[in-house]
Design goal:
The protein is mainly β. It has a single domain, classed as Beta Barrel (OB fold (Dihydrolipoamide Acetyltransferase, E2P)). Helices cover 13% and strands 44% of the residues. It has 2 helices and 6 strands. A 6-stranded mixed sheet has the order 1-4-3-2-5-6. The radius of gyration is 17 Å and the shape is elongated.
């Protein structure tokens, strides 16, 4: 019987290993995009100010990525994400709001189920 390390080496060599650790996606310029299947979200406490925001994890053509979109988008769109559904998310840039504050703007579109990740009904 092979050891676990030998099985890992064989699987990695054969391309059968799936990376679970997400790479961080930073929204740098308008037009930046993520297209992939929603996996999960985690609530993160803000280190800059008060409050919290969601960090999202998606399976994409380039592997697993994680990113945040900001509190405004969390409440407008983030609650609608369904595990296993495919979404196209495009960064539209920042919009100034009252005072010195600004908000990140996104266009989010749902494409349908991926089939690779079991979907769950909303709210579960």
């Amino acid at each position: 019987m092979k050891s676990y390390k030998e099985m890992y080496a064989d699987s990695k060599k054969g391309g059968a290993v799936r990376q679970l650790t997400p790479a961080y996606k930073e929204w740098k310029k308008a037009g930046d995009q993520v297209v992939g299947a929603f996996i999960s979200k985690n609530l993160i406490s803000s280190s800059v100010g008060e409050g919290s925001y969601n960090q999202y994890v998606f399976e994409t053509d380039d592997g697993v990525v994680k990113f945040h979109m900001g509190h405004a988008t969390d409440t407008e769109v983030g609650e609608q994400f369904v595990k296993g559904m495919i979404y196209a998310i495009e960064y539209l840039g920042q919009e100034k709001i009252s005072g010195l504050r600004s908000v990140n703007k996104f266009n989010v579109e749902e494409l349908g189920p991926s089939g690779a990740i079991p979907s769950e009904p909303p709210g579960e």
